[in-house]
Amino acid sequence: MVDRAADGLQCLELLQSKPAGYYAAVLMDIQMPNMDGYAAARAIRAMPDDRAGLPIIAMTANAFEEDKQRAFEAGMNDHIAKPISVDTLLATLREKYEVTSGLPSPGGFFAACAPQSAIKKCYKKAHAGA
Fold first, then answer.
1. What three-state secondary structure class fits 97?
2. Which of 45, 34, 46 is nearest to 8 (CA)?
3. Which of 24, 26, 33, 57 is most buried per CB count within 10 Å?
């Protein structure tokens, strides 16, 4: 399951509205209005509970090595360049974050802070064989 936030502020509100452990990972766009992905990732890392340790995967058109380094410095765990390959995203989630059948564990939910079109595409691909 995917819960979507349109910007960094909404992402933080979404995470804070659920108990720690509810989300298994955060899919984070970098260029968003109100609060960008870098600031949102730093704010997540500053949370006082287990949410601070959520895997955060950057999804961005900024694909140079310095862009990746900036994402890692902000506290993100991975970096996937746009256009997003659904296969690459799902492989990353399966290999690094123990995702099976297109769903994360333990909570079974993603917090997706990205454009709706990208999330819909990933969701459809993940559930095509379910």
1. helix
2. 34
3. 26
Instruction: Please state the rounded mean pLDDT for residues 108-112.
Output: 62
The separation between the first and the last C-alpha atoms of the chain, rounded to the nearest angstrom, is 13
Q: Which of 115, 98, 87, 117 is nearest to 25 (CA)?
A: 98
pTM (global) more than 0.85? no
**DSSP type of residue 127:** T
User: Among 41, 97, 37, which Cα is nearest to 62's?
Assistant: 37
Tokens linked to 42: 């730093």
Give residue 106's pLDDT band: very low, low, confident or very high (50, 70, 90). Answer: very low
Q: Kind and range of the H or E element at 1?
A: none
Q: What is the pLDDT of residues 51-92, one digit of tens each?
A: 999 889 998 887 788 989 999 999 999 988 888 888 888 788
Amino acid at 129: G
User: CA nearest 84: which of 12, 27, 15?
Assistant: 27
